[in-house]
Amino acid sequence: MELLELYVFVLAAFVGYMVISRVPPLLHTPLMAATNAISGISLVGSLIAAGSARNGVATILGFVAVVCATSNIVGGFLITDRMLRMFKSGNAKTVEKAGTH
Amino acid sequence: MRDTLISGSYLIASVLFILGLRSLTRPDKARHGMQQAAVGMLFAIAGTLLNHTIVDYRWIAAGLVLGVIIGYPMGMWVPMTAMPQRIALSLTFSALAAALVGVAEFYTEITSGGIPTHFKMGALGFEVMLGAITVGGTLVAAGKLQEWITSKPVTYKGQNLVNGVFFLGILALLVYTIIDPTQQWAFYAMIGASFLFGIMLVIPIGGADMPVVVALLNSYSGLASCATGFALGNVILIISGSLDGASGFILSVLMSKAMNRSFTNVLFGAFGGETVAIGGKSSAGLSVRSIGAEDAAIQLAYAQLVIVIPGYGMAVAQAQHAVRELSEMIEKRGGEVKFAVHPVAGRMPGHMNVLLAEANVPYDKLYDMDEINSDFDRADVALVIGANDVVNPAARNDTTSPIYGMPILNADHAKSVIVLKRGMSAGFAGIENELFYDKRTSMLFGDAKSSLTALIGEIKNV
Question: Is B262 part of the contact surface with chain A (CB cutoff 8 Å)?
Answer without folding.
Answer: no
